[in-house]
Amino acid sequence: MSTTTTARAVLGAETRLMLREPGALFWIIVFPPALLGILGLIPDFRTPSEDLGGLRTIDLYLPTALILTAIMASLMTMPAVISTYREKLVLRRYATTPARAGDLLFAQGVLHAGAVLIGSGLALLVGYVAYDARIAALGSAALVYVLAVAANLACGALIAGLAPSAKTASVIGTAVFFPSMFTAGVWYPISALPGWAESIVGLTPNGAAVLGLEQAVAGDWPDPVHLIVLVAWTMLAGAVAARYFRWE
Amino acid sequence: MTTTTAPAIRLRGLRKTYGSVVAVDDIDLEVATGEILGVLGPNGAGKSTMIDCIAGLARPDAGTVEVLGVDPARDRATAKRDLGVQLQQAGLQPKLRVSEALDLFASFYDDPRDPAELADRLGLTERLGHAWTALSGGQQQRLSIALALIGRPRIALLDELSTGLDPASRRDVWSLVREVREAGTTIVLVTHLMEEAQFLCDRLAVIERGRMIALDTPAGLVGSTAAPAVMRFAPSASVALDVLRSFDGVADVTSGDQTVQVVTDDDGVLAVLDHLAREGIRPHGLRITESSLDEAYLDVVRRESEGANR
After folding, report:
1. Chain A residues whose beta carbon lies within 8 Å of the beta carbon of residue B94
2. Nearest to A96 among B77, B83, B94 (CB)
3. Which among A138, B99, B167, B202 would be 20 to 30 A from B13, CA to CA?
4. Contact status of B129 with chain A (Cβ, < 8 Å)
């Protein structure tokens, strides 16, 4: 039986399982657009500001909401599922069949990427319909966005792959989650930070992603440094995860 | 067992260590096509490690493993197509239902068995809609057996086949295993049940401390024991068990509720009877029976550990 057939069959089963327990999807699909909608209710956030180059705070929250979907998926949901599969010896059983344990990881990656896309689409919709927040340079934004989702999923795979147990994976995921919220600008717009702080945050995957997306919101191409940072994180985390992944 | 065809499984000098622990040490074994080989041995003797090596899950530190002519750790895809494996411990996605698991695993193979028919054979029909975590231990065990056999494997590795099964399900599983063998599948099964070994297996391999210490048919193993007789009686007065143990040929003496059991050879039987007559003790209800596989197995393991301690 070909490997694509088994991968597709496993993906089908994993899709049913994910839809059977939609609770985890709430944080990826519902929470980020809802946060954007709630923050937009603050009148100040809807007022253009000289400090933000004539943009409104809500305009800068749109990139943050897009990236938040990827953070939720890759730090909170995906490592929990994968490390549970290892701890409960599911990966071990699949390793004895023509399907591979890797088929389960692939399916989880595809499903979480899909959920992230849906959550981001909803955030775009909420921003546009409720607050007329839009991204001036869509192509530029799409480029940054795809690289950002890849970097986040690679980091999620790294956590899932190296954590010795499901409990540890959840502890590490949470520990990384809060700094990630900060670098993604959930608490304070990154571009409003002092220059030196912005440079440091720009070296993190989500800082680079949000800064790049903000340039797209303003209608510009992203600074190549942001793209390089994202690609570097993806390759580094992906390579370490692939090399040191614990199958048992 | 003689056969003209190439063996289904061939182990040569198999050795596997985990850190400083030698799990399997220098095992040579050939399993003929269509044979049912039982693997016996105490807990921690290395049985599951041997299964892992045959399944290609573990890479030997020395020696070779051939499964239908290929190295299962190297040529994973080929080996996995031909092998059906029931591991001693393996899970499933917690919310995956029995019917979904059967359909999914069936889709991995070119010519799978009918999932509904297999579920029926293993008494799972009424559990088809249940999730993995909602199954009892015995039901999970039966599903694991179904998943191992659903691809019509040429070789089935069954680690602790009937652990956790009630006697009725055990009979169902045994008849299924026999039928699978009739259809041409070679089977290696790890068991702690002598009844199972005797009922199903053509040959038995006894593993102790990583080494294979016996390889014989069940009848051959019983016949090879140095103490082929078991005496049971209720003595009319108390018997000095240490004296019985001191006789040549007596392998084991145990006393239960007013009964004494002696495992011994023919000379030992006579020595015990002479001793009882001299002491004026009457052995009420005396029965002398042939040693069973149970005793033969314990005898083989005991001799091995005595040898190791000497």
Report:
1. 84, 88
2. B83
3. B202
4. no
- What's chain B's average pLDDT? 91
Nearest CB neighbour to A92, from listed B87, B108, B110: B87
A72: domain range? 3-244
A97 touches chain B (CB under 8 A): yes
CATH architecture of B9-221: 3-Layer(aba) Sandwich (3.40)
Q: What is the CA radius of gyration of chain A?
A: 19
Q: Which two tokens stand for residue B146?
A: 């179904």
What whole-number distance in Å separates Cα of residue A7 and Cα of residue B21?
Answer: 37
pLDDT digit string, tens, across residues A182-233: 999 988 888 888 889 999 999 999 999 999 999 999 899 999 999 999 999 9
Which residues between 93 and 122 in chain B have a beta carbon less than 8 angstroms from any beta carbon of chain A? 93-96, 100, 104-105, 107-110
- Report, at the CATH architecture level, how domain B226-290 is classified: 2-Layer Sandwich (3.30)
Instruction: Give CA–CA dist A60/B148, Å, rounded.
Output: 54
Residues of chain B numbered 217-236 and touching chain A (CB < 8 Å): none
Test mutation, B18, B107, B152, chain A, max A CBs within 10 A: B107
Lookup: tokens for A148: 């950002």
Complex confidence, ipTM: 0.88
Alpha-carbon span B105 to B57, nearest angstrom: 18
Supply the pLDDT for residue B4: 54
Task: Return the residue of B nearest to A15 by Cα.
Answer: B96
Query: pLDDT tens, B75-110?
Result: 999 999 999 999 988 999 999 999 999 999 999 999
Q: For position B153, what pLDDT does the model report?
A: 97
Proportion of chain B in helix, strand, coil states, percent, rounded to 5: 40, 30, 35
Any idea where the domains of chain B sit in the sequence? 9-221, 226-290
Mean pLDDT of A102-127: 94
> What secondary structure does DSSP assign to A4-56, as a single string?
HHHHHHHHHHHHHHHHHSTHHHIIIIIHHHHHHHHHTTSGGGGS--TTTTT--
Interface residue B54 vs chain A (CB under 8 A): no
**How many domains is chain A built from?**
1
pLDDT at B310 over 60: no
Encode pLDDT of B125-156 as tens digits: 999 999 999 999 999 999 999 999 999 999 99
All residues of chain B having their beta carbon less than 8 Å from the beta carbon of residue A9 are 104, 107-108
Which residue out of B52, B82, B93 would a mutagenesis test of the A interface target, given it has the greatest number of A Cβ atoms within 10 Å?
B93
Count of CB pairs separated by less than 8 Å, A with B? 70
Report the distance separating Cα B280 and Cα B274, nearest Å. Answer: 10
Residues 6+ apart with CB under 8 A from B237: B279, B280, B281
Q: What is the pLDDT of residues B257-302, one digit of tens each?
A: 889 999 888 889 999 999 999 999 999 999 998 878 888 888 888 8
Structure tokens at B144: 């694991």
